[in-house]
Amino acid sequence: MSDLLVSDFDYDLPEELIAQHPPAERGLSRMLVMDRANGTLRDSQVSEFPSLLRQDDLLVLNDTRVIPARLYARRTLRREKEKPTGRIEVMLTEPAGDNRWHALVRPGRKVAIGERLVFPAPDGASVLEAEVLERGQFGDRLLEFAPVNDFFGVLDRIGHVPLPPYIHRDDAASDRERYQTVFSRDPGSVAAPTAGLHFTPQMLDLIATRGVEVARVTLHVGLGTFAPLRVERVNEVQLHRERYTISAEAADALNCARSEGRRIVAVGTTVVRTLESAALLAGHFAAHTGETQIFISPGFEFKVVGALLTNFHLPQSSLLMLVSAFAGREHVLAAYRHAVAARYRFFSYGDCMFLA
C-alpha cells in the first residue's frame, strides 16, 4: 500500500451535509451499518446500536473531557506609539509542562516571540497572562502562562467550546453540554471523541442490561485530528502526538477479552488508536500512561479491535484512512457515496457508522 496517495481518499461532499448543530436530542442520529467482510450496507438508527452488540462483547469508550480551549486575548503594547490590535484568538492544543501550552494563534503574524498576551474575563478584568516562548509554522506558538490557583477553573470561566473549523458559527451555551460525551470525566481534550456523543444514559443502561462489558480508556484529542495532511503520499504522513491512559481495570478487561476470543468494540477512532498503539508496545495490556503517534492506514494489521462505531470523517484525512484500513478503502468510499446520496449528516455533530 506504499504507493497510495492522500488524494486516493477523497470524496465529494456537499457543504450542506456538514452538520452545524447537534440533533435536537442526543441519541437521535442515523447509523449506517456495514458488514466489512463484503461491504454490504444497511440504513439504521443509532438507537439500534445496543441490539447489535453481542453478550460477550467488550465495549471500549474514551472518557476524555473537552476543555474550553478557545480563548481570546489582547496584546500588551511594547512601545508607546504602537497601535493596539484587535483580539487574538488562541486555541490551546496540548500541555507542554508546568504552565506551558502549545497553541494555535490567529492572526499569527502579529504575535512574536517575547510578546505577552492578556486574557480578560467578560467584565474586562485580566485573569490570565502568557508569554510567547517559541514560534512554529502555521500559527503554532509555545505559551507560558503566569501561575494561577486553578487554571482549568479559569478556562471554564473565560474559555469557549473549541468547535471544529468546519462548524461555521460561534459556540453557544448548549455546546458546553452537547460537545461532551455523557461519560466524560478526565479533562484534557481540545476536540470531542465524536462517536461517543451519540450515547445517552439510557443507551448505556440498556447495554449494561444486555450483559455487555464496558471498559474506559482515556485519549486526549488534539487539534492534529483536524490538521490537513500536507503531503502527497500516504507513507509520508506523520501525526501529532496525543496522550493516553489505560487503567489497571481496563487493561485486565482487555487482556481477558482477548484471551477468551471475545470481540472488542471500539467507540471511535481515538479508542482504536489507543488500543492498537498500546498493543504494539508489548503485545498485551498493562496499566500505563503514554503518548501515541500511531498512523493507521490500509495495510495495517489490527491486533485488538473487532468492530468500530465511528462518525463520518473529512476527505483526505488520517481518520478516513484509519477506517479504510479497518474495512477496506473501496468498501468505505462506497459507503460514503451512499451516505451522501442518502443525505446523512457529516462530521462531529453528524451521523455515524457501525463497521463489524
- The CATH class assignment of the largest domain is Alpha Beta
Strand content: 25-35%
Largest sheet: 9 strands, mixed
Corresponding CATH architecture of the largest domain: 3-Layer(aba) Sandwich
Oligomer description: single chain
Series of secondary-structure elements, N-terminal to C-terminal:
EEHEEEEEEEEHHEHEEHEHEEHHE
Order of strands in the sheet with the most strands? 2-1-17-16-14-3-12-13-15
Could you tell me the number of beta strands? Answer: 17
Helices, by number, come to 8
Distance between the termini: 23 Å
| SS class | alpha/beta
Rg (C-alpha, Å): 21 Å
**If you average the pLDDT, what whole number results?**
94
Q: Provide the helix percentage.
A: 10-25%
Q: What's the domain count?
A: 2
Q: Spell out the CATH superfamily of the largest domain.
A: QueA-like
Question: Can you tell me the residue ranges where pLDDT is under 50 for at least 5 consecutive residues?
Answer: none
Shape: globular
CATH topology of the largest domain: QueA-like
Written account of the structure:
With 356 residues, this protein is of the alpha/beta class. The protein has 2 domains: 6-66 and 174-355, QueA-like (3-Layer(aba) Sandwich), CATH 3.40.1780.10; 70-158, Beta Barrel (Thrombin, subunit H). Helices cover 21% and strands 27% of the residues. The protein contains 8 helices and 17 strands. The strands form 3 sheets. It has a 9-stranded mixed beta sheet. A 6-stranded antiparallel barrel has the order 5-6-7-10-9-8. Strand 8 (116-120) and strand 9 form a beta hairpin. It is globular and about 60 Å long. The mean pLDDT is 94.
